[in-house]
Known about the structure:
By secondary structure, the chain is α+β, with helices and mostly antiparallel strands. The chain has three domains: 3-199 and 342-389, no CATH class; 219-340, no CATH class; 397-451, no CATH class. Helices cover 35% and strands 22% of the residues. It has 16 helices and 18 strands. The chain has helices spanning 3-17, 27-41, 49-55, 60-68, 74-88, 152-155, 158-163, 175-188, 200-203, 206-214, 253-259, 261-264, 330-337, 341-352, 364-389, 419-428; strands spanning 95-104, 114-118, 123-137, 140-148, 195-198, 219-223, 228-230, 236-238, 244-246, 251-252, 269-276, 279-292, 303-310, 317-322, 397-399, 405-407, 412-413, 450-451. Strands 1, 2, 3, 4, 5, 6, 7, 10, 11, 12, 13 and 14 form a twelve-stranded mixed sheet that branches. Strands 8-9 form a two-stranded antiparallel sheet. Strands 15-16 form a two-stranded antiparallel sheet. A hairpin with a 2-residue loop joins strand 11 (269-276) and strand 12. Helix 2 (27-41) crosses helix 3. The protein is globular, with a radius of gyration of 24 Å.
Amino acid sequence: MDAERIRALQPLLTDYLSHFDDCFPHLQTRGHLDVYVRGQLSDLPRKSVEPIALQAEVPPRTLQQFLSLSQWDRPLATQRLQQIVAKEHASPHSVGIFDDTGCPKKGAKTPGVKRQYCGATGKLDNCVVSVHLSYAVEDFHCLLENDLFLPEEWSEDRDRCRAAGIPDDVVYRAKWRIALEQHERALANGVHFEWVTFDENYGNKPELLDALERRQQKYVAEIPKNVCGRIRPPRLRRGPRGGLKPSHAPSTVENLLRYSPALRDQPWKAYRVKDGEKGPMVWEVKHVRFYPQTAEGDPAKPLHLIIARNVLAPEEVKFFICNGPPKTRVPIMLLVAFSRWRIERCFEDSKTELGLDHYEGRNYEGMMRHQTVTAVTYLFLARMREQWRGEKPGPDRVPTADGIECAGPIVVAACEGEARDLGTLCEHDSVSASAECQSTQEPPQANHCQVAQGWHLPKSATAMQMEPAVAL
């Protein structure tokens, strides 16, 4: 970033933050938002209250009060952020992503802290966990909302909660319930998700999947290998003691892959799902229609079952289910399934660049406001990144497996004997109706052309760094 662009950020930031004016009843409190956001955009190594305040020559207590005691509307700030995304980044290819992240903390007084799995350290650790909803489309991604995951031991100790400023109506809720509430609020604020996706910690919750189905929300969910179901729809027959029973028992998806002829005998098909920093990431895929087993033991409505195996590490196998229409293309489902890195990138950027995990207070409202302001700052950076990327003379061109250059990476597998046609498709970043690959209730067997229509993947999971550091 050159000096001219850094200077240009000042009026752009002022204009952007004006969207949040009505969240603050007092002008002085509104001014602290500018101070805090500029501090997060600065080159400070630690972006907690005290370093930000000292750099801005503001008493640290003033910023502490801005986060924990001052009167301003945090839910409204979240609503404004989501309305900006809904208005300026709407797309028929949007993906919402549910995930949670942990921030290591010492002591026992930070709201929600306990020894639990922490993604930041990759082990059981003393940390605070928050649940987030993110939004991704093409090269743009941002965080839409944050909520504290309050462990049961905290929820049951209301005196401890009150000492940390946790309201009485904030209680233990499963992470998938928090995510579902976030999804509902985002929809109410005008955000449209063509798809949502999440890892197996959310995908193994039938209540979440059922709720999304009722909302007519398409999803691609990673599931554990022990999820049970059937590939062939069972016929009901009368049992020896009367009553109707399915004609054959369900199996785990792991065993279906190993023993079911529909999967065992189906050839793997290679797809380049993303271009990473170390080169293309290629996964081999099998696809069938799948009837998951309900809690009552009955077969549910048919879904897509996608099984993906890492070409470079064949022991790494992922299982996904999708409630998209029967003719949904495998490349599109793969693109959605492998979009989860976008929220991981949001977490990493927010922690390394903006200080998401630098909050040092012991007040619930202060911690939640810190996370909300971080999301506001991140959206500003995401908008600037998208705007400046648009100034390039043309997109980077990435070769396919056949050496044909495509305008931006897409989920693709080479077509046997159709390199010329694939080159034409890549040139337009889409697939024509005449070249559309077969996709029925059974996986395609003969046609090996698989290109995702109209969908794009960023070239790599490059960190959204503002270098040289932005100093406003």
